[in-house]
Amino acid sequence: MVSKKQPILKKISNGLTVGSVITGSTFFHGPPVLALGLTKLIKKSKKIDEANIGITNSWLSVNNWLIDHVLPNLKWHITVDDDLDLSMQGRYLMTCNHQSWVDTTVNQYFGLTRMPLTRFFTKWELIFIPFVGQAFKILGFPMMKRHTKEQIAKNPELKYRDLEEARKSCEQLLSQPFTLLNYLEGTRFSVEKHQQQNSPYVNLLKPKAGGLALALSILENEIDALVDMTIVYPDGAPGYGDFWLGEVSQIAVNLRKIAIPDWVRGGNYEDDAEYRARFQKWVDELWAEKDQLITEMKQQYAV
């Protein structure tokens, strides 16, 4: 009876500790970020941006401390290719496979001391979520007002308005080091989605190249590297609660540098059909390499 109760008690202990610490940390770090953000309405300041990033990194460091101390049995297998020289002062575009809400936590755990704060494209509608939406805006997450195909068909100018919004959002990052993350699959992997897409990959959904093409067209001359992160959960992709309750025994992460072909630079993905097809083929080839890498990582770290 005792041996059966111990895992349950451990889960309860983990849940109470994690919930209490994250809630307390959020209430401690959140108000200063919002307060400093309001001052930007009056005067833009690089020092304010740096202060907000410092506060955010402090919040992330609390989360990482929890991972190291509340989940001490979690094993990390982290591999960074030799030709990828990461720096806290760098500017990076990053692609990643997407399986779980835990992916972002993994990215933050890895990147906190190795790379600038990671942002990702978010929907403008998130601005209305209390605290979270405002924090995304203040911290420079590119927030986009995307219009549907039906809306664009009625008013083609909306397409270029969306692109201009994205351009402005990305350009705002150029005043500081950054990591801009793009989940190319556009959604979390599931067997059902994989079957519905008839995906040609074993471990991945089909990649959507448009977001990466857009980011490269805006930032291509300003980034230090295009980085591909691959995350593998040998136990199977966990839920967010499963992760914090200690249900995950190991996580494997690989980072590699992706060479950007010369022909990619200066292309027009939206209006040049030939370029768009060539760019999509390039991304498909990168995804095929990634698919093989995931298979190899699963075999290497099989439970």
From TrEMBL:
Keywords: Acyltransferase, Transferase. GO terms for molecular function: acyltransferase activity. Residues 92-234 form the Phospholipid/glycerol acyltransferase domain. It comes from the Bacteria. PANTHER family: 1-ACYLGLYCEROL-3-PHOSPHATE ACYLTRANSFERASE-RELATED (PTHR10983), LYSOCARDIOLIPIN ACYLTRANSFERASE 1 (PTHR10983:SF16). This is Acyltransferase. It comes from Acinetobacter lanii.
